Amino acid sequence: MVGRAWDWMRRQRVLVDCFFASPLLLMTLPGMFGTYPLVAPWQVALLTAGLLGPMALRRTLPRGSFAAVALVSFVQCVAGVEIIPANVAVLMGLYTVAAESSFRWGLAALAAAETGAVLAPLRYTPSLSDFRPSFLAMTAVVLGVWILGLHMRTRRAYLRSLEERAERLERERDIELQIAMAAERARIARELHDVVAHNVSVIVVQADGAWYAMDTDPGRARRALEAISATGRQALTEMRRLLGVLREGGDGTAPPQGAASEPQEGAYAPQPGVNQLPDLVEKVRASGLPVELDIEGTPPAMSQGQELTVFRIVQEALTNTLKHGGPQATARVRISYGPDTLEIRVTDDGRGAAAADDGRGHGLAGMRERVAVYGGEVRAGPRPGGGFEVAARIPLREEVRT
């Protein structure tokens, strides 16, 4: 609410400037009815219009409004018309020029205001003894207003630099995240490609077996054809997901320059799955992190792409614990198999939530990319009692995808 009001005030400059000049108008208004014995009402009205009128454009045209107010005050001093409350507009104009314009224009406005601080005591004080204190007081006020305007100008420049830096850092962070997501999509596409290639190889082998067993063993040929049908459907499903990943990544070209790529060594090795989770846990334990692995339920039939996604989520979560958990951290991996969904929960009691972020990690974004391929969701964040938690939910059937 406050931010909206502030934005509205920024847009309505003329209205806001009139509002800030209104107290001077109220103070000068009685003089228009003859309450000032030394100034005629028409003079008060004329001076008020000449001094407060330019204040409506105080921030829109700071130098022009100050020049108009200074000129009216100079003519008033030369004509010998007594000072009225509306003459404070000179100080308002001085502040605005110092705060809104360059330092040189601020110095010029200071010189003009200081000239008025000299002429006014000379014109309106009866003796030299009265001139000195009036001159010193007016000079102190003029310098104070000018310094305040310079301070506000410096502060606004500093705030603008901070805003520009924040916007630049936000743009750089978005670019880095896009690069990381593109690299992760390319990695997922390569892995799903391996899965599809494996399924096609199985289809070819089963088709050859069915061909040779068609005359001698019809039952075996029938089983081979059933395997071909199931594997073909699975390959089509994985192919759809592969094309979806490439479509989301753009035109399917290589990832942007600077994006991380998978090492080529071992590119044709079998992809890991849920059966390799105990081996992964043992490797993490050997690295010095105590890990417990709990598996609930019976593992259903899963595609290789789904098994690979489960393995990568657990791997990334344990890697984050190793990097950020601290020397005394422990972790627990819990896999729950349901009839329709698979839930993964990796928790630790380390200091990952309070660890310093170097801004180079994109593991959580990669997890979300992988799980999104299968219509799942990932939640990651600090635990209430301390530590960090990664929770993922993956639908196991197409009809329950979110």
From TrEMBL:
**What name does UniProt use for this protein?**
histidine kinase
Q: Which GO terms describe its molecular function?
A: ATP binding; phosphorelay sensor kinase activity; protein dimerization activity
ATP-binding among keywords: yes
> What's the source species for this entry?
Actinomadura rubrobrunea
Top-rank taxon of the source lineage equals: Bacteria
Give a GO cellular-component term: membrane
| Reaction catalysed by this enzyme | ATP + protein L-histidine = ADP + protein N-phospho-L-histidine
UniProtKB keywords: ATP-binding, Coiled coil, Kinase, Membrane, Nucleotide-binding, Phosphoprotein, Transferase, Transmembrane, Transmembrane helix, Two-component regulatory system
